[in-house]
């Protein structure tokens, strides 16, 4: 079994706490040493108690799914001899209520746009198949309850 870690640090310092008006900004440090400022979403906790410039958990969730899909897509494309020059994804996640009335991530939509070069250029069908394979292989897409869809963008 492989473990992945993230260390979160939040420190109150001299701010009040019991009035629930404390800063939600904190740091996430990953096992490779990278640090990322995080906060609650300003849609959930209003500013100034949240920091809109920091990454919120919902954004990180969407980015994780998009990143997993992209990494599998790149690997599969390389194995099939297709040279990828750029990959951009305007991924979105939609929050809503589930059947029990809880707020959940209802769905994640990946909107990747991929540019290729070289002698072997994939057809539209081959690109769609690569995205399908990437989705079927992505660990994270199979680890969540919400619907994760991929709608490739073509020019």
Characterize the structure shown:
Helices cover 24% and strands 28% of the residues. The chain is an alpha+beta fold and 155 residues long. The chain has 2 domains: 55 residues, no CATH class; 94 residues, K homology (KH) domain (GMP Synthetase, Chain A, domain 3, 2-Layer Sandwich). It has a 3-stranded antiparallel beta sheet, with no helix packed on it. Strand 2 and strand 3 form a beta hairpin. Helix 1 crosses helix 2. The longest helix is centred in the middle third of the chain and has 23 residues.
> Which sequence of strands runs across the widest sheet?
1-2-3
What class would the helix/strand composition place it in? Answer: alpha+beta
Strand percentage lies at 25-35%
What is the H-and-E element order? Answer: EEEHEEEEHE
Low-confidence stretches: none
What is the CATH architecture annotation of the largest domain? 2-Layer Sandwich
Number of domains: 2
Number of helices, counting only DSSP H or I runs of 4 residues or more? 2
Radius of gyration: 19 Å
**CATH evolutionary superfamily of the largest domain:** K homology (KH) domain
Distance between the termini: 42 Å
Question: Which percent range fits the helix content?
Answer: 10-25%
Mean pLDDT: 96
CATH class of the largest domain: Alpha Beta
Chain oligomer state: single chain
Task: Say what the CATH topology of the largest domain is.
Answer: GMP Synthetase, Chain A, domain 3
Number of DSSP-assigned strands: 8
Dominant shape: elongated
**Biggest sheet statistics:** 3 strands, antiparallel
């Amino acid at each position: 079994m492989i473990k992945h870690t993230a260390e979160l640090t939040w420190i109150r310092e001299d701010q009040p706490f019991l009035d629930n008006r404390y800063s939600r900004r904190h740091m996430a440090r990953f096992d490779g040493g990278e640090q990322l400022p995080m906060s609650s979403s300003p849609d959930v906790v209003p500013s100034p108690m949240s920091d809109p410039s920091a990454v919120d958990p919902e954004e990180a969730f969407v980015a994780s799914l998009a990143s997993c899909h992209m990494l599998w897509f790149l690997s599969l494309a390389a194995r099939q001899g297709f040279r990828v020059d750029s990959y951009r994804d305007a991924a979105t996640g939609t929050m809503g209520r589930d059947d029990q009335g809880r707020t959940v991530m209802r769905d994640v939509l990946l909107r990747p746009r991929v540019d290729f070069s070289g002698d072997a250029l994939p057809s539209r069908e081959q690109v769609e198949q690569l995205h399908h394979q990437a989705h079927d292989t992505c660990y994270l897409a199979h680890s969540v309850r919400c619907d994760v869809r991929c709608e490739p963008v073509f020019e």
